Write the structure tokens for this entry.
Amino acid sequence: MTYIVHYLEQARHVDTDRFKMAEPHRRIKSALIMRNDNSLCQKVCSTSRVLRQWNRTNSGIIILDKKKKKNALRTFEELKSKQIHTTRSAHQAIAFKLSDIGEGIREVVIKEWFVKVGDKVQQFDNICEVQSDKASVTITSRYDGVVTRLYHEVDQTALVGQPLVDIELEGTTAEDAPKSKEPATKETNETQKEQQINSSSKKEKILTTPAVRRIASQFRVNLSEIPATGRNGRLLKEDLLSYLNISSDKSNEVPEFANIPAPTAQVAPKPEVILEDKIVPVTGFTKAMVKSMTEAMKIPHFGFCDEYNVTKLVEMRETLKKVALSRGVKLTYMPIIVKATSLTLLNHPVLNSSLDSSCENIIFKASHNIGVAMDTPNGLVVPVIKNVQNKTVLEVAKELNLIQEKGAKGQLGLSDLTGGTFTISNIGNVGGTYTKPIILPPQVSIGALGKIQVLPRFDSEGKVVPTHILTVSWSADHRVIDGVTIARFSNELKSYLENPYNLLLDV
């Protein structure tokens, strides 16, 4: 019988006495690796392709003889470089894994898929939107190819480092890409073919970045109408700015019409009636709240409450609101309060500090990154306005409008929710007077604003007059801040808000 030696890594240990070659003119019928070790014994079926490969790489048949063992070994070493092998298909499906998105996040919840099986994707195309316990993040593709499998359904949990989708790369060999853990099933392939046919008739997707889509949405521009100059038809930010005829600085300004809500029919949602007990896993922002509040309750809280007469603030805001609206900015009380808080923190920097992990050092923060607690469809979040000490009231208002819009759409990212040094919560939107806010570690203080109410108060002449009253509640870390400090801070902020024109002297 004729045998072909197929070299493996252990082939140097093969005993050549076991191999005998028949006459040169006989046809090769099969190839065996003759070893007692079962892990190395495998049969390679003889095909016409194998025969052609053999004829191309071998000039003749070698007869192994016991008397010529030395020559046979040398000839065998030459055959090692001419082994018969096969390659996999050029279209290789790889597992696109969920990479580490930072901040110690280990799992996320799939909120929305932007692709389906059979869709073609390119680099930087949106794959899905995921929600961690801190923020919502859009995952983009790192490859060009066709989606062959989705590993999760909407609202399922995905782990960092585990596959999200399988993408079949075009024009890439198996050696160029990692191997997928689970190949696509027969049903998946059939679904892929059907969806490829359906997707071919759909409108071509616009290739661009989330930042460009945000600007286009802000200015209400149809991206398909803009000529794209980027690679592979990608729409660049410069293309959009050129189309709008604005500079990059003005791309963050909200146009006046963007603040006018579209008329919609207000239909009160029906409350969900629970007929039996059900178990719901703690995920997303709720999980973040459980974790942060558990840590917060280790802090010894000190509370302080007061009333501010903000009648002059109400009058000033009514005047400035029209001016701000003419510049395309919606001005509420919160931007003024945030700026006044920043000015007050300059004189009381300990409220803008934090304790280190060993509670041995106080870290005084140079930036006033003030978080504003906000109720969103995904739950309570605290987006942060960075470097308030360097911004005007109008700039704070613009940024606040932007994060409120992103929060309503569930589009707040990690950069929007991290880095806070001081927090202001506002329960006045819902209703209420006083509350006891919980400090967000590693911060050392937090404030909560109640509803501005018109209440009777005595003026300087002893007459009862209607007065706009704002109630405030402060909580401080009593390990760092004492009662006198928080009282002085509150009184100075009270002076700014009761006499808002004083802000002009210190801004």
